[in-house]
Amino acid sequence: MPHSPASTHTRAVADSAALPLPQPTTAVILDLDGTITDSAPAITTSIAEALAACGYRVPDAGTLLRFVGPPIREGFLTFGGVPEPALDGVVAEYRERYRPRMTQVPLYPGVAQLIETWHAAGIPLALATAKLGELARPILADAGLEQFFTSIHGATREDSHDLPGVQVKANVVAAALQGLREAEVDVSGAVMVGDRHHDIEGAAMHGVPGVLAAWGYAQAGEEAGSAAIAEDAAGLARILGLPQAR
What we know:
Radius of gyration: 17 Å
Number of strands: 7
CATH architecture of the largest domain: 3-Layer(aba) Sandwich
Structural class: alpha/beta
Strand order of the largest sheet: 1-7-6-5-2-3-4
Number of domains: 2
CATH topology of the largest domain: Rossmann fold
CATH class of the largest domain: Alpha Beta
Strand content: 5-15%
Shape: globular
Mean pLDDT: 92
Largest sheet: 7 strands, mixed
Low-confidence stretches: 1-8
Order of helices and strands: EEHHHHHEHEHHEHEEH
């Protein structure tokens, strides 16, 4: 199906490094935080509490928002001022506070309806998140969306502990693609949809073009390398040439 022209819901990205969007789109790989769920309040509140409990200064709201998306260890190390030897303890404090909150998050407008519509139309869907896999599936299930995904993958504890964020994302995208292939899905026209540069760069490492979800938590400049920017769910459907939400 051909792509619709850009509208108020879409923005083309003039980036020669961007992988071109396929025609047609044969599968969609979605990020979770900042793409499906508006999880920042639950995450940033838990981060602030964990830092305070461990004796670290709590960053300002803008800095706390930068934690959302990459692996949590990377966030504490890069933005929280937590030294490497202390990371395990701070991460444990964070997860203790985050788990009771993780399903108490709203969904972005129109995204759940889009997922359900695409599933009904036979468009294979996969989830690829840098969040631990053991956390991602319950969040999808609580939102009533788990059954619409052919392949659901989050980071392993080993990857989250040892690898930089972009590589963690690349590994999760690889797992999602493999899950789709095992379900006999044509991934030649797969597209990644996410709100952070990790999503775009990690997918590109496997030859998968990315669309930036502008409704999420991207910082200025993170659109680099993306094939297009979607302002909302309707714009995303137009970019991918897929049905609008019913």
